[in-house]
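Exercise 7 asks you to align residues with tokens for two separate proteins.
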Amino acid sequence: MSDDLEPLAPESAVELYLDQRSDEVSASTHESHEYRLAPFVEWCEEVEGITNMNELSGRDLHAYRVWRREEGDLKPVTLQGQLSTLRVFLGFCASIDAVEESLRSKILLPTVSGDDEVSETTLDPARAEAMLDYLGRYQYASRAHVTALLLWRTGMRTGSVRSLDLDDLDLEEGAAHVVHSPETDTPLKNGNRGERWVALSPDTAQTVQDYIDGPREAVTDDYGCDPLLTTREGRVSRSTVRDTMYRWTRPCVVGEGCPHDRDPDDCEAAQFDGASKCPSSRSPHDVRSGAITSYLLNDTPAEIVGDRMDVSKKVLDRHYDRRTQREKMEQRRDYLPDDR
């Protein structure tokens, strides 16, 4: 360890890094970095007892790579993304004399093939409907019900659902206006290009109205806006939306039992803050990919899906369309003459 380094706790280092990056990246990217670095802080302080960034070595980083891969049961592409963020973070730490300049280069990134670059996790339509049926029966018009309903029925991103204000809704006509408003901390991933009107089915619109008339916390946010999805403190955070989906996409909480033969009394994923550890739980991105695939399986033209979900044809084909080649063939058959 160099004498030029200055002591700094891992958690404090991450806080400094996130503060420095807050003006450089979008809110969604900032949250993603925070999410990716949380396990590193946990490993340092709770697993290895490392309380000073100065102590980190290349061997430590290899141990973390192995731990993260096995503990998180991560696919190569996911592990690569998390370690890439750690590399950037360590570059920042070197700039403030918390680690050696060469430390970041000692992180070995996993090699991924072209197929591995695309995540295969998605929410199956049958499981999505089971979730919505359960919420509709036992948690009707709750915030969780409305969150899940909007994400699945519209395929919106987390930021889009979170951005909705009461003024953006025309529930009588069954429509929601998705607006890019960075000045009120509700930006869209694609900026102004992501702005659009999204149609809502009558039952979805009615459920949203019942939520507004019922359990919704009638609060404004820090900018004087009236968010649709609220907590007692104001607009929901992205992490709240994410945690909601992890919780309610677990089969065991919607009466489907555990497909992994686990005992709920002993299962860490059954705990309040452990839902993401369930192999069957799904993130909002998985819900979005499942919704897009469901529309495509129902013969909705790709151009219509792309406009509704704010996604280009190229990105849709590569990252969201989870139809099998056989399913695509069968759908094409319906449009071909019988003698072809």
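Second protein for Exercise 7:
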Amino acid sequence: MPELKTIGLFLLTAVAELVGCYLPYLWLKQGKSVWLLVPAAVSLALFAWLLTLHPTAAGRVYAAYGGVYIFAAIIWLWLVDGIRPGIWDVVGVTVAMMGMAIIMFAPRTA
């Protein structure tokens, strides 16, 4: 079950990062309120804090997180941007998630 906890934590982290980046995008590109920067900053602070909750080396966490971020961003593309992922998006996500799994869950001595 630690694998599910790790992936769940990564997914929550990815959502915090996506929200933290999307809100300034709305302000800059779509003319929405500058006040969106406040929840964006909170979301990015949450993102950074969530990355500290993993019990392994920071570099390993950052590397593996990238794979889950790619997965979450493609889901965001579909649900928020309204663009259905294509076959190459799915292939890319699969490769990224395999990389994440190897980095986080491979047996190691240190």
